[in-house]
Amino acid sequence: ADDLGAALAAIDAENPSVRAAAYQALGRLLGRDPARLAPHIRRGIADANPHVRRRVVLAAVAARGLALRPLLEPLTGDPDPQVRRIVQRILRAVPQDPQRTEAKIVQRAS
């Protein structure tokens, strides 16, 4: 639990490398708790520093059960080309409509 406290404190650090590492730690610590992780991801992708935003995107992808499309779609217009590239690659891999995809898989299986 104190790891979590340390990570939560570090997302307010002035040093962007410390913030980036903090978001990555939060992704690891809360990776199976999407409801608790999502607000931190939303805050992190609004960070002024592109390095921090990239790490937050990767933390979001590594977590389980986050709705990635609504979280990441706004970043397709990110001012940083690397952030845009990562986000576009991820969104291409994420199904447009999870329900429809699931229905297709079920249909194929039956």
Molecular structure report:
By secondary structure, the protein is mainly alpha-helical. Helices cover 70% and strands 0% of the residues. The chain has 7 helices and no strands. α1 runs antiparallel to α2 and α2 runs parallel beside α4. The model has no long low-confidence stretch (mean pLDDT 89).
Helix content: over 70%
| Counted beta strands | 0
Query: How would the global form be characterised?
Result: flat
Q: How does the major sheet shape up? A: none
The H/E string reads: HHHHHHH
Structural class: mainly alpha
Beta-strand share of residues: under 5%
Total helical segments: 7
Q: Provide the residue-averaged pLDDT.
A: 89
Evaluate the radius of gyration.
Answer: 15 Å
Poorly predicted residue ranges = none
Measure the end-to-end span.
45 Å
Short description:
With 110 residues, the chain is an all-alpha fold.
Overview features:
110 residues, 7 helices, flat
Present the secondary structure layout.
Blueprint: H1 2-10, H2 16-29, H3 34-44, H4 50-62, H5 68-72, H6 81-93, H7 98-109
Helix pairs in contact: 1-2, 2-3, 2-4, 3-4, 4-6
